[in-house]
Every structure is written in C-alpha cells, then in structure tokens.
Amino acid sequence: MQPQSLSQVTGRVLWKHNAGYVFALLVLLTGCATFDPKAGFPEMSASVEERSGMRVVWNAGTELDALVAQKVRALLADKLTADAVVQVALLNNRELQATYAEMGVAQADLVQAGLLKNPIFDIGVLFPLSGGVAKLELLTAIDFLHIFYMPLRKRVAAARFEDAKLQVTGNVLDSAATVRAAFHRHQANEQMLELLQIIAQGLAISLEVAQRLHEAGNITDLDLARERALAEQAKLQLRDAEIAVRQSREQLNILMGLWGKATAWEIDRRLPDIPEQPIPLEGLESQALRQSIDLASARQRIIMAGEQLGFSRATALIPELALGASAEREGGREDGTWKVGPVVAFEVPLFDQGQARIGRSSAELRRTQQAYYALGVRIRSTVRAVRERVRGTQDRVVYYRDILLPLRERIVNESQLQYNAMQLGVFDLLRAREQQIQAGVGYIEALRDYWLARTELGQILSGRLPRPEGIQMSPTERPANMVERDQH
Prior knowledge:
Number of strands: 4
CATH architecture: Up-down Bundle
Distance between the termini: 127 Å
Number of domains: 1
CATH superfamily: Outer membrane efflux proteins (OEP)
Low-confidence stretches: 1-32, 472-488
Shape: elongated
Strand order of the largest sheet: 1-2-3-4
Helix content: 55-70%
Strand content: 5-15%
C-alpha cells in the first residue's frame, strides 16, 4: 500500500468535518417540518365562534369528547330552540367533522413543501463479455437547487393552507345556516299540520250537517257530493302534511347527527312572531364586505396565484440541479483502484423553457383578480336582494297579523251572531270559519318566509354568501279547499 501524503490525509479530514456540518444543516432544515393533523383548527373554531356565537369541537377520542356528548344530551333534554339545534349540529354532525380533515390535507402539503428531496443512490455492476473482473459503479446525487426553491414552495403551500382554513370556516357557517333554515321549515310544517287538522275537523262537521239536511230533503245530491269531496280532499291534504312533518323532522335528525333514543326531541311547534325591535337594515353592504369570508378567500387565492407565478418564473430555465459524487472501481479486490469525482446533472432548457407554466400562472392570477372584483359586486347585490326580502316578508307578516286576521275574526263573529238569529245558514258560517283558517295559513307561510330570509341575512353578515339556489324552500302548495269553496 502506498503511503498517503499529508495533503490527502488533510483533505479527507476536512471532508469528514465539512460533511458533518452539511449533514447538520440538512437536519436543521427538515427537523421543524412536522405534521399536526389539527393545525389550523383553533383559528377556525375561534372565527366561527366570533361570527356565529356557536362552538365547534373536533372529535379526537379524548376526554373532551365525553364533555361534548354530555353537552349534546343536555341540550336535547330541553325543548330545542333554533340556536340549540344549530349548536347540537355543530357539535355532533359527523359529516361536518369530516370537513375538518381538509385542513389536515393542506397542512400536509405545507409540511411536504418544507422537506428536502431524498438523495438518490445508484449502484451498477458491469460484467465484461470476454471475461474478467466485474466493474463496480456507485453514484449518489441530491437535487441541490431544490434547497433554494424551498422558500418559494413553502409560500405557495402556506397560501393554500390559509385558504383551506377559510373554506372550512365557510362550510361550518353554511351548515349553521342550513340547520337554522331546516328548523324553521319544521316549525312551519308543525304549525301547518295543526291548522290542517282544524280544517279537516271542520269539513267533517260540515259533511255531517249536509248528510242530515240531505236526509231531510233540504239539499240536493249534488250539494252533498260537493261536501263529501271537500271532506275527503282534506283528509288527503292532512296526510300530506303529516308526511311533511316527519320528513322535515328526519332532515333535522340528519343535520344534528342523531339516531335511536336521541331522536325523541321536542321543539316549540309554532314559529315565533317577528321581533318587536326589527333588525337595523342600514349599512348592511359595508358590514357584509368587512365580514365576508368569501372575499377573504378570494384575496387568499390572489396571493396564492401570485406566489405560484413567482415560483414558475424562478424555476423556468433550471427547474432541477442535482449535485453528487460518483465512484468507480476496476479490477479485483486486491488490485482494484477507486476513481472518485463530482457529478452535476441539470435539465437543458432546449424545448421547454417554462413559458407554458409562466403563462398558466399569469392567466390564473388575472382570473383570480377579476373573480375578486366580481364577488364584491355579487355580495353587494345579494345583500340588497335579501334586505328587500326581509322587508317584504316582514310587511306581509304585519299585514296578516294586524289587518287580515282581525278582519277574518270579526267576520266569523258577525256570522255567528247572524246564524244564531237564523239569518245565515250553517254553510255560510262554516265558510267564514274556513276563510279565517285560510288567513291563518297565509300568516304561517309569511312568517316562515320571514325567518328564512332572516336566516339568509344572518348568514351573509356572518361572512358567507348563501348558495345560488338559496336556503328557502319553495312555497307550500295550498290545499284546494283552502283557496276557494264552491258556492251553494
């Protein structure tokens, strides 16, 4: 073995020393990149509580879950209000729990963006066809340029992570509005069922009277057939109302994530009247723009597109640059000699110079900018439309409550007096009572529409635009006998 020179020994020592520093630097760069599956949830939950007053908890199999379950049972034990139903849904709905994992996906991408690429190690063995000693080749390389592009990639991933938190926050607020609207629909169905039961009972009495009059020869077969048709139609409509109540109740069970004995909850079966102090409807556009999560998410997408454009421009010509070392040995174990040298590998930008990636990123940036301004216009317009719907439904409720319902009650009272004085027939009295019930049905529909409009307005002011189809349901089809009754 040939004696080693001082320079060879010194170089080997310096290589080991510097290699230790390089290894320590790589460990330092990647050591902080750890994955937290609940990253972003505290910020999201705080934002939801600030905007809606409701609390959200991520089910993680801890002692806190038992406290949440106890809270849900306590809420279900009392008569549920709209706020209580929303709170149960936010705590207990499993589909909502699944959406929280979207932040974990974005956080995983952020962690991945901060990790170095693993080095590549190649081993090759060449066997001479004419015989002889095999040739051993070793190659190791790491994407060196990847280290310098790491801050750019992390900024893009961080922007996506912030957008994911905003999207999940918006989904939670959407769920709260959906549950509140479903609660008011169920209340309206319950109250409508009560009125239809009264209508069916009234028409049953009317049919009994008509049968007695028919037996006495005071009305014709046609009049009796009309009364019976109305009574039978009322039974069908009552059955439809019972089905509607059960369906809306099951919809609430789905939204609250309830099953088994937990579905035996109770609510106030009548819609609340409009508040004595109506909500202020001035300055809503500015408030909606300030609170808008949709606008914040659109701004975040602009930032994300800008970061992506910067990354595309920086990596256009040389997206990858690998540095490493190659070692080669020829001959046997005794007489073999090693040859060691550096390796540099990079992509030659002969055809693809990154122009397509830069163009795509530029177009995406322009798209997000225009979408941001369009969203601002849409928010303003939606606020004005919902505000007018709130005003219109409120006026309609007040009209029914203060004018039409008292007027129908007066007509019934006067009809009763004339019937007692034998100046009015029994059918006229029943017709007056039925028209009074019709006014009651109209009042329920107006009150339901008011609370649905209030729910949409609350959703906007909490920072979330309603879906294009809205959260209000289509008007209930009125029973035929509640619109017009044949005259005798």
